[in-house]
Amino acid sequence: MSEQRSAARTVLVTGGNRGIGRAIAETFVAAGDNVVVTSRSGDDGPEGAHTVRADVTDSASVDAAFKEVEAMFGPVEVLVANAGITKDALLVRMKEADFQDVVDTNLTGAFRVVQRATKGFMRLKRGRVIFISSVVGYTGAPGQTNYAASKAGLIGMARAITRELGSRGVTANVVAPGYITTAMTEQLPEDVTDNYLSMIPAHRFGRTQEVAAAVQYLASDAAGYVSGAIIPVDGGLGVGH
Ligand code: NDP
Predict the structure, then answer these.
(1) Which InterPro entries match (predicted)?
(2) Model pTM?
(3) What are phi and psi of 172, to 5 degrees?
(4) Residue 115 belongs to what domain range?
Protein backbone atom coordinates (compact mmCIF):
# COMPACT_ATOMS: atom_id res chain seq x y z
CA MET A 1 0.00 0.00 0.00
CA SER A 2 1.55 3.30 -0.97
CA GLU A 3 -0.10 6.66 -1.14
CA GLN A 4 1.18 9.61 -3.12
CA ARG A 5 1.25 12.74 -0.96
CA SER A 6 1.35 16.35 -2.09
CA ALA A 7 4.01 17.34 0.50
CA ALA A 8 7.03 15.11 0.96
CA ARG A 9 7.77 14.25 4.57
CA THR A 10 11.14 13.50 6.09
CA VAL A 11 11.23 9.82 6.96
CA LEU A 12 14.03 8.11 8.85
CA VAL A 13 14.28 4.32 8.93
CA THR A 14 16.96 2.85 11.18
CA GLY A 15 18.57 -0.27 9.73
CA GLY A 16 17.09 0.48 6.32
CA ASN A 17 19.93 -0.95 4.26
CA ARG A 18 18.56 -4.49 4.26
CA GLY A 19 15.73 -6.78 5.29
CA ILE A 20 12.48 -5.36 6.64
CA GLY A 21 13.88 -1.83 7.03
CA ARG A 22 14.84 -1.73 3.37
CA ALA A 23 11.34 -2.76 2.27
CA ILE A 24 9.86 -0.09 4.57
CA ALA A 25 12.15 2.56 3.06
CA GLU A 26 11.15 1.46 -0.46
CA THR A 27 7.45 2.07 0.22
CA PHE A 28 8.15 5.59 1.55
CA VAL A 29 10.26 6.35 -1.54
CA ALA A 30 7.35 5.14 -3.71
CA ALA A 31 5.01 7.46 -1.77
CA GLY A 32 7.20 10.43 -2.69
CA ASP A 33 8.68 11.12 0.75
CA ASN A 34 12.24 12.23 1.52
CA VAL A 35 13.65 9.01 2.88
CA VAL A 36 16.85 8.49 4.82
CA VAL A 37 18.03 5.12 6.06
CA THR A 38 20.72 4.47 8.61
CA SER A 39 23.23 1.68 8.48
CA ARG A 40 26.31 1.02 10.57
CA SER A 41 28.39 -0.03 7.62
CA GLY A 42 27.35 2.81 5.34
CA ASP A 43 25.82 0.22 2.97
CA ASP A 44 23.23 1.92 0.82
CA GLY A 45 19.49 1.60 1.26
CA PRO A 46 17.11 1.30 -1.69
CA GLU A 47 17.28 3.49 -4.78
CA GLY A 48 15.86 6.92 -4.09
CA ALA A 49 16.71 6.85 -0.37
CA HIS A 50 19.69 8.60 1.22
CA THR A 51 21.96 6.71 3.56
CA VAL A 52 23.61 8.04 6.71
CA ARG A 53 25.87 6.12 9.04
CA ALA A 54 24.55 5.57 12.54
CA ASP A 55 25.00 3.10 15.34
CA VAL A 56 21.92 3.17 17.57
CA THR A 57 23.99 2.04 20.56
CA ASP A 58 25.88 5.34 20.43
CA SER A 59 23.92 8.52 21.17
CA ALA A 60 26.62 10.77 19.63
CA SER A 61 26.36 8.78 16.40
CA VAL A 62 22.55 9.06 16.49
CA ASP A 63 22.77 12.82 17.06
CA ALA A 64 25.23 13.24 14.16
CA ALA A 65 22.92 11.25 11.85
CA PHE A 66 19.91 13.40 12.77
CA LYS A 67 21.95 16.57 12.13
CA GLU A 68 22.84 15.22 8.69
CA VAL A 69 19.20 14.41 7.92
CA GLU A 70 17.97 17.78 9.21
CA ALA A 71 20.53 19.61 7.06
CA MET A 72 19.24 17.77 3.98
CA PHE A 73 15.48 17.71 4.56
CA GLY A 74 14.55 19.44 7.83
CA PRO A 75 13.17 17.69 10.92
CA VAL A 76 12.24 14.03 10.82
CA GLU A 77 8.46 13.67 10.79
CA VAL A 78 8.20 9.89 10.51
CA LEU A 79 10.59 7.74 12.51
CA VAL A 80 10.71 3.99 11.99
CA ALA A 81 12.83 2.38 14.71
CA ASN A 82 13.65 -0.88 13.00
CA ALA A 83 17.31 -1.65 13.77
CA GLY A 84 17.55 -4.87 15.72
CA ILE A 85 19.70 -7.86 16.54
CA THR A 86 19.37 -11.29 18.11
CA LYS A 87 21.84 -13.11 20.33
CA ASP A 88 19.93 -16.24 21.24
CA ALA A 89 20.83 -18.65 24.02
CA LEU A 90 18.95 -20.64 26.62
CA LEU A 91 18.51 -18.65 29.80
CA VAL A 92 20.95 -20.66 31.89
CA ARG A 93 23.67 -20.16 29.29
CA MET A 94 22.92 -16.60 28.25
CA LYS A 95 25.79 -14.27 28.97
CA GLU A 96 24.85 -11.03 30.69
CA ALA A 97 26.73 -9.18 27.93
CA ASP A 98 24.49 -10.79 25.30
CA PHE A 99 21.39 -9.77 27.23
CA GLN A 100 22.69 -6.23 27.50
CA ASP A 101 23.78 -5.99 23.85
CA VAL A 102 20.36 -6.99 22.57
CA VAL A 103 18.53 -4.63 24.92
CA ASP A 104 21.00 -1.85 24.12
CA THR A 105 20.36 -2.15 20.38
CA ASN A 106 16.67 -3.07 20.24
CA LEU A 107 15.23 -1.12 23.17
CA THR A 108 17.69 1.54 24.33
CA GLY A 109 18.61 2.09 20.66
CA ALA A 110 14.95 2.87 19.91
CA PHE A 111 14.87 5.19 22.93
CA ARG A 112 17.94 7.07 21.63
CA VAL A 113 16.44 7.69 18.22
CA VAL A 114 12.94 8.57 19.41
CA GLN A 115 14.28 10.95 22.05
CA ARG A 116 16.38 12.71 19.41
CA ALA A 117 13.48 12.76 16.93
CA THR A 118 11.19 14.38 19.51
CA LYS A 119 13.11 17.67 19.25
CA GLY A 120 11.99 17.89 15.63
CA PHE A 121 8.44 16.75 16.42
CA MET A 122 8.12 19.65 18.88
CA ARG A 123 9.20 22.09 16.17
CA LEU A 124 6.85 20.55 13.58
CA LYS A 125 4.04 20.10 16.11
CA ARG A 126 3.53 16.59 14.76
CA GLY A 127 5.33 13.30 14.38
CA ARG A 128 4.86 9.61 13.75
CA VAL A 129 6.82 6.92 15.55
CA ILE A 130 6.65 3.30 14.48
CA PHE A 131 8.56 0.71 16.47
CA ILE A 132 9.34 -2.64 14.86
CA SER A 133 8.77 -5.11 17.65
CA SER A 134 8.09 -8.83 17.23
CA VAL A 135 5.41 -11.40 17.98
CA VAL A 136 8.01 -12.80 20.39
CA GLY A 137 7.59 -9.64 22.49
CA TYR A 138 4.24 -10.95 23.73
CA THR A 139 4.33 -14.71 23.09
CA GLY A 140 7.90 -15.21 24.28
CA ALA A 141 10.20 -17.82 22.71
CA PRO A 142 12.72 -20.20 24.22
CA GLY A 143 16.28 -18.98 23.82
CA GLN A 144 15.17 -15.37 23.37
CA THR A 145 14.91 -13.97 26.89
CA ASN A 146 16.93 -10.94 25.83
CA TYR A 147 15.15 -10.42 22.50
CA ALA A 148 11.63 -10.93 23.93
CA ALA A 149 12.33 -8.50 26.78
CA SER A 150 13.64 -5.87 24.35
CA LYS A 151 10.68 -6.26 21.99
CA ALA A 152 8.10 -6.20 24.81
CA GLY A 153 9.75 -3.04 26.08
CA LEU A 154 8.96 -1.26 22.82
CA ILE A 155 5.24 -1.73 23.48
CA GLY A 156 5.48 0.02 26.85
CA MET A 157 7.60 2.74 25.27
CA ALA A 158 5.04 3.40 22.50
CA ARG A 159 2.27 3.63 25.07
CA ALA A 160 4.21 5.97 27.36
CA ILE A 161 5.00 8.22 24.38
CA THR A 162 1.33 8.14 23.37
CA ARG A 163 0.31 9.43 26.78
CA GLU A 164 3.15 11.94 26.99
CA LEU A 165 3.05 13.41 23.48
CA GLY A 166 -0.44 12.59 22.21
CA SER A 167 -1.54 16.18 22.74
CA ARG A 168 1.42 17.41 20.62
CA GLY A 169 0.30 15.71 17.43
CA VAL A 170 2.60 12.74 17.92
CA THR A 171 1.47 9.13 17.53
CA ALA A 172 3.56 6.12 18.56
CA ASN A 173 2.65 2.62 17.46
CA VAL A 174 4.11 -0.84 17.18
CA VAL A 175 4.28 -3.26 14.29
CA ALA A 176 4.91 -6.79 15.48
CA PRO A 177 6.09 -9.05 12.67
CA GLY A 178 6.01 -12.79 12.94
CA TYR A 179 8.32 -14.94 10.90
CA ILE A 180 9.44 -12.82 7.95
CA THR A 181 11.93 -14.10 5.41
CA THR A 182 15.15 -12.03 5.75
CA ALA A 183 18.85 -12.60 6.34
CA MET A 184 18.15 -12.60 10.10
CA THR A 185 15.70 -15.51 9.92
CA GLU A 186 17.66 -17.40 7.25
CA GLN A 187 20.29 -18.02 9.93
CA LEU A 188 17.83 -20.01 12.07
CA PRO A 189 18.23 -23.80 12.17
CA GLU A 190 15.90 -25.82 9.91
CA ASP A 191 14.11 -27.55 12.79
CA VAL A 192 13.23 -24.15 14.27
CA THR A 193 11.79 -22.85 10.99
CA ASP A 194 9.83 -26.09 10.40
CA ASN A 195 8.41 -25.82 13.89
CA TYR A 196 7.32 -22.20 13.28
CA LEU A 197 5.71 -23.08 9.96
CA SER A 198 3.57 -25.71 11.66
CA MET A 199 2.31 -23.10 14.16
CA ILE A 200 1.49 -20.28 11.70
CA PRO A 201 -2.21 -20.28 10.75
CA ALA A 202 -1.33 -18.77 7.34
CA HIS A 203 1.11 -21.67 6.93
CA ARG A 204 3.75 -19.56 5.26
CA PHE A 205 6.38 -17.06 6.25
CA GLY A 206 5.74 -13.39 5.74
CA ARG A 207 7.21 -10.99 3.22
CA THR A 208 9.04 -7.81 4.12
CA GLN A 209 6.56 -5.85 1.99
CA GLU A 210 3.72 -7.06 4.21
CA VAL A 211 5.40 -5.47 7.23
CA ALA A 212 6.07 -2.30 5.21
CA ALA A 213 2.34 -2.03 4.36
CA ALA A 214 1.42 -1.90 8.06
CA VAL A 215 4.08 0.77 8.65
CA GLN A 216 2.71 2.79 5.73
CA TYR A 217 -0.75 2.69 7.26
CA LEU A 218 0.49 3.91 10.65
CA ALA A 219 2.37 6.75 8.97
CA SER A 220 -0.60 7.73 6.80
CA ASP A 221 -3.07 10.56 7.39
CA ALA A 222 -5.75 7.88 7.77
CA ALA A 223 -4.06 6.65 10.97
CA GLY A 224 -3.95 10.05 12.66
CA TYR A 225 -6.20 8.84 15.51
CA VAL A 226 -4.34 5.54 16.07
CA SER A 227 -1.75 5.60 18.85
CA GLY A 228 -0.38 3.10 21.34
CA ALA A 229 -1.59 0.27 19.09
CA ILE A 230 0.09 -2.94 18.03
CA ILE A 231 -0.42 -4.26 14.51
CA PRO A 232 0.62 -7.90 14.26
CA VAL A 233 1.92 -8.99 10.85
CA ASP A 234 2.42 -12.63 11.66
CA GLY A 235 0.00 -14.80 9.67
CA GLY A 236 -1.90 -15.34 12.92
CA LEU A 237 1.05 -16.80 14.86
CA GLY A 238 0.41 -14.64 17.92
CA VAL A 239 -3.37 -14.66 17.80
CA GLY A 240 -4.94 -14.52 21.26
CA HIS A 241 -2.03 -12.74 22.90
P1 NDP B 1 18.37 -7.77 9.39
O2 NDP B 1 19.36 -8.50 10.23
O3 NDP B 1 18.19 -8.14 7.97
O4 NDP B 1 18.66 -6.21 9.48
C5 NDP B 1 18.90 -5.60 10.72
C6 NDP B 1 19.14 -4.15 10.49
O7 NDP B 1 19.42 -3.54 11.76
C8 NDP B 1 20.35 -3.89 9.61
O9 NDP B 1 20.06 -2.84 8.73
C10 NDP B 1 21.43 -3.49 10.60
O11 NDP B 1 22.38 -2.58 10.08
C12 NDP B 1 20.60 -2.78 11.65
N13 NDP B 1 21.31 -2.70 12.92
C14 NDP B 1 21.64 -3.71 13.76
N15 NDP B 1 22.31 -3.24 14.82
C16 NDP B 1 22.41 -1.89 14.66
C17 NDP B 1 22.98 -0.83 15.41
N18 NDP B 1 23.62 -1.04 16.55
N19 NDP B 1 22.88 0.42 14.92
C20 NDP B 1 22.25 0.66 13.76
N21 NDP B 1 21.70 -0.29 12.99
C22 NDP B 1 21.78 -1.55 13.44
O23 NDP B 1 17.00 -7.88 10.22
P24 NDP B 1 15.47 -7.92 9.77
O25 NDP B 1 15.23 -7.06 8.61
O26 NDP B 1 15.03 -9.32 9.76
O27 NDP B 1 14.80 -7.27 11.08
C28 NDP B 1 14.49 -5.89 11.16
C29 NDP B 1 13.71 -5.66 12.44
O30 NDP B 1 12.55 -6.48 12.45
C31 NDP B 1 14.49 -6.02 13.70
O32 NDP B 1 14.21 -5.10 14.72
C33 NDP B 1 13.95 -7.40 14.03
O34 NDP B 1 14.09 -7.68 15.41
C35 NDP B 1 12.51 -7.26 13.62
N36 NDP B 1 11.84 -8.52 13.35
C37 NDP B 1 12.27 -9.34 12.35
C38 NDP B 1 11.59 -10.52 12.11
C39 NDP B 1 11.96 -11.43 11.01
O40 NDP B 1 11.33 -12.48 10.90
N41 NDP B 1 12.91 -11.11 10.17
C42 NDP B 1 10.46 -10.94 12.95
C43 NDP B 1 10.09 -9.99 13.96
C44 NDP B 1 10.77 -8.83 14.14
P45 NDP B 1 23.81 -3.06 9.48
O46 NDP B 1 23.54 -3.68 8.14
O47 NDP B 1 24.58 -1.81 9.35
O48 NDP B 1 24.36 -4.06 10.44
Answers:
(1) KR_dom (IPR057326), NAD(P)-bd_dom_sf (IPR036291), SDR (IPR050259), SDR_fam (IPR002347)
(2) 0.96
(3) -135, 120
(4) 10-229
| Counted domains in the chain | 1
How far, in Å, CA of 39 to CA of 8, rounded? 22
Count of alpha carbons within 13 Å of 47, Cβ hemisphere only?
A: 0
ipTM above 0.90, yes or no: yes
Residue-wise pLDDT tens digits, 118-155: 999 999 999 999 999 999 999 999 999 999 999 999 99
Which one of 13, 20, 61 would you pick to mutate in the ligand 1 pocket, going by the greatest count of ligand atoms within 8 A of its CB? Answer: 20
In whole angstroms, what is the distance from residue 97 CA to residue 46 CA?
33
What separation in Å is there between the alpha carbon of 48 and the centre of ligand 1? 20
Q: Helix or strand or coil: residue 55?
A: coil
Q: State whether the Cα torsion 153-154-158-161 is positive or negative.
A: positive
What is the domain-level CATH number for residue 82? 3.40.50.720
pLDDT digits (tens, 9 = 90+) for 90-104: 999 999 999 999 999
Compute the CA torsion angle 218, 157, 104, 38 (nearest 10 deg): 30
- Is residue 237 within 8 A of residue 201, CB to CB? The reply is yes
DSSP code of residue 206: B
Catalytic site includes residue 147: yes
| 179 and 192 Cβ atoms separated by less than 8 Å | no
Half-sphere exposure at residue 210, Cβ-oriented, CA atoms within 13 angstroms: 16
Let me know: does 103 contact 152? Beta carbons within 8 Å.
Answer: no
In a domain, residue 162? The reply is yes
Does residue 145 sit within a domain?
Answer: yes
Residues in the chain: 241
List the catalytic residue out of 138, 147, 196, 225. Answer: 147
